[in-house]
Amino acid sequence: MDKSRSHPETLREVQPFTFSQSSLQDFSDCPRRFQLRYLFQLSWPAPIAEPIQENERLTRAGERFHNLARQALLGVSLDALHESVLASGESNLPLWWQHFLQLIPLLQVGECRPEYSVSVPMGEHRLLAKFDLVQYFATEQRAVIWDWKTSLHRPPRARLEKRWQTHLYPYLLARTGLPRLGNASLTPSGIEMVYWFPHTPDQPERFLYSEEQFQRDEESLQAILAEINRRQPSQFEQTANERHCHFCVYRSLCERGIQAGSLEEMEGDIDAPGESSLDLNFDQIGEIAF
Amino acid sequence: MVKLTPAQHHLLNQPFEKRIFLEGPAGSGKTTVGVVRMLQLLHAGVPGDQMLVLVPQRALGIPYLRALASPEAPPGGQVSVLTAGGLARRMVDLFWPLIARQAGFAHPERPPVFLTLETAQYYMAHLVRPLLEEGFFESISIDRNRLYSQILDNLNKAALTGFPIEEISERLSAAWNGESSQRRVFADAQHCAMLFRRYCLEHNLLDFSLQVEVFRNFLHPSFLCRAYLHDSVRHLIADNIEEDTPFAHDILREWLPELDSALLIFDQDAGYRRFLGADPESAIRLAAACHETLLFTNSLVTRPGMETLGEALGNVLLIYSPHHSQPTPPQKNDWKEILNFPPQSLRFYPQMLDWVADEVARLVESGTRPGEIAILAPILSDALRFSLANRLDVRGIPYRSHRPSRSLADEPAARCLLTLARLAHPKWNQPIEPEEVIHALFIAIDGLDLVRARLLGSIVFRKHSRQLSSFTQIKPEMQERITYSVGNRYETLRTWLSDYAAQPEMELDLFFSRLFGEVLSQPGFGFHTDLDAGRVTANLIESAQKFRQAVENAGGMEGTSPGCEYLAMVRDGVIASTYVSSWQPPVEDAVFIAPAYTFLLYNRPVEHQFWLDAGSNAWFERLYQPLTHPYVLSRGWEPGRLWTAAEEYQTNRETLFRLTLGLLRRCREKVHLAFSELSEGGFEQRGMLLRSIYQIQIQETRHG
Ligand code: SF4
């Protein structure tokens, strides 16, 4: 056997670890999934949802939309982008783009940082956020975190409210401030998190942050990190909520079903696996062996 | 917390706004100080998202990434750790609509299609194959895939060095000093390169060379991209610039005057990636664009004997030639303590491998950590890797390799999936051998041994029909021998495949995913708890998906589906024959088996190095590359000059010197020289490396 194919079994073996909203959410949804995905780093390429082609198409359309939004916010000509939307042949994209064009004037107030990532140490680990857009209003010392959600179904507000992203993102922005935009320390009450859905643009979900929430989030982040750190290999148990298994690639390994769940029932808060704590874009030539 | 030397402190005490060029040998603490400087800047309030760490290849960025992932890094924006090629690709992706038309792409309104090494090889094969039938390259005998990759390599060299691709053959021909028929080969290579470039422009395809050219010629001069880079790169640390290319150096030269801080790190006597366009001479010229050059001289890694041996090798390889004076013997004899030879002469190659494995086991038993041992070969063939791996396995020694010992398409799980894909797509008319079906059943069905797999396969598969028949049609006594539980599983698989075949065809990567999820990884099937099979399947899916997306985005292909074409390309060895992405989770404490150059570029010193097959000429000679040339296509080459045999010989000596010096500077305790009288192929071994060491010994004996 190739001895190189072993893997860590507890968090203590992979210190330091960079936690993202997905990994925290994974642990909350199913500790076993966290263990398989981040500790074992197990690629298990089963379908996430059916029809598999439709799910793939939607994922690609979502990626495309994120890219377009970023390009538009960096000043690439809207006409050229519009032309590429029409040429894409992607059915959802023209409508999403149309809605985004209507949003742009609102985003042009204040200063914008598209695709901005921050990380913060917590104990022996780090926390990471990748913002789609941070908008900053200097006079009011106020910042809005925008997150584009392109999934087919929007999750109810109550579910969004419980998601780690809703807490982690404002928490990290409050910790780091926006030094490049002239503000090194934002107060929590000056931060707002907005989920914007390009297919229902008039109903964004907004979450105002506050000092109390910041304190609560800090405590819960410390608690969950300590909890994950404490666990022995056998303590990453499978979830009791089998709904998570319908849209989880590990369902065959866990003996939790054969077919992937229906895309119709998949809510927009389910993340596809694949996010890595070292997400870097290296070129192809670097790996060619001599 | 790392303890720093006075030289390192001196550098860290320099004001940030000073542009510093740091030079020194490997192991003198340059990267350590680079990492500390990065943290120093962050702690001083420099926003991480205005800092770039530029490295020539991924492995060399790891110390920076580790530091950024540790709790010692302060809160804030993320530092980018990139290669120049990665940066070019990011910028092309981001600002594509700005320049696509101007750069000559036929469909600027469509997104760019970035080619991987695999997909670039595929398109090259697609264009060159018909020309081979017409007699292109008929005077040379070379494996087709190496031919394709050398044409791509020429394009990359032109882009990285900065000369027009139209000049490739002119430059190669002008330097050629042998038979004139070779000029025809260069002309063929030029024709293929031009054809490929035209095809890329027509289909929005960007291989590595085109990514570099588009960035250099169109994006970098554009206002928007420049403003973006000016805003996002205020502080720069560029490490191992001697391994980087003139393309990277040109960018640095332009940026340097405008940066708020810069630290350039240059490793002396290196430049190991020359085959990939590295140009240390171009790198050193950047010192002139900095305020100050600092020198680190002392090795923090090696014992004094290593330096003595390095110097002695330099005397033999660089100064001495039959026409010149005798080399001076080593000044000290401490170099003998750091060399270990087999106790007696080993005649055969396998004896040498046994000696290496025994020595490794002895070291581990006496307390050396396996991670402190590297087994290095000039070229690491799959067979050699396998032989070593077996010997270490038997002795219970953990090891790791820079890539798995098999190609993706040879992995049992991948072979099983590929065979099942051919069975599920009878319309594709892909040949299937009975042995392949037997192997696929053996791998796919849990509880099926090879004997019964053979029995089952030979009954249910008929080569002419390319289909599987039902278990229920087998005679009862045979069913009993195969067992009913296996029969049930077989039926599940067979029914799944035939149900699939009855429906409209699906994309191949999605087919693999569904087959994996719904059958092969379910209880009762071979991949169920096989974590490696999951990884291999994920790699195969990724390879097939990238292939499909490249083909689809480029406007599809006529008369065949991407899945069918993918399977044909795998069979031809164009695709899935190498691993481009690493899929093995790294294990720190394991013996590292690698080609010597790869080890150098991992840049992690060890206590013990085994120089395998030290008598082989492969340590000395350049790879056979009839279509390209790393020196002639470099920036420093004077056009029109001839590349002579003497130059080749002298360059090889210099290269061997740099290689051995680099290895010695990354070794803390001992170098174990492993060699046998006869090579693997049964020939006497008299390679330059071993001869040079003998020569040092002789000189010392003479001088008493
Ligand atoms: S299949 Fe269910 S139990 Fe298993 S990892 Fe996924 S969510 Fe957890």
Task: Name some characteristics of this structure.
heterodimer; A: about 290 residues; alpha/beta; Lambda Exonuclease, Chain A; about 40% helix; globular; B: about 700 residues; Rossmann fold; six-stranded parallel beta sheet; about 50% helix; binds iron/sulfur cluster; PDDEXK-like_dom_sf (chain A); nucleotide-binding (chain A)
Describe this structure in words.
The complex is a heterodimer of chains A (290) and B (704). Chain A has helices at 21-29, 31-39, 52-74, 78-87, 93-107, 157-162, 164-176, 211-230, 243-246; strands at 18-19, 49-50, 111-122, 125-137, 142-148, 191-196, 205-208, 261-262. By secondary structure, chain A is an alpha/beta fold. In chain A, a hairpin with a 2-residue loop joins strand 3 and strand 4. Chain B is of the alpha/beta class. Chain B has four domains: 6-88 and 217-295, P-loop containing nucleotide triphosphate hydrolases (Rossmann fold, 3-Layer(aba) Sandwich); 113-203, no CATH class; 334-405 and 586-703, Rossmann fold (3-Layer(aba) Sandwich), CATH 3.40.50.300; 408-572. In chain B, helix 25 links the parallel strand 16 and strand 17 (667-673). Chain B is globular, with a radius of gyration of 28 Å. At the A-B interface, helix 3, helix 4, strand 3, strand 4 and helix 7 of A face helix 3, strand 3, helix 4, helix 15 and strand 12 of B.
Shape of chain B: globular
The gyration radius over C-alpha positions of chain B equals 28 Å
Q: How many helical elements of chain B?
A: 26
Average pLDDT number of chain A = 88
Straight-line N-to-C gap of chain B: 47 Å
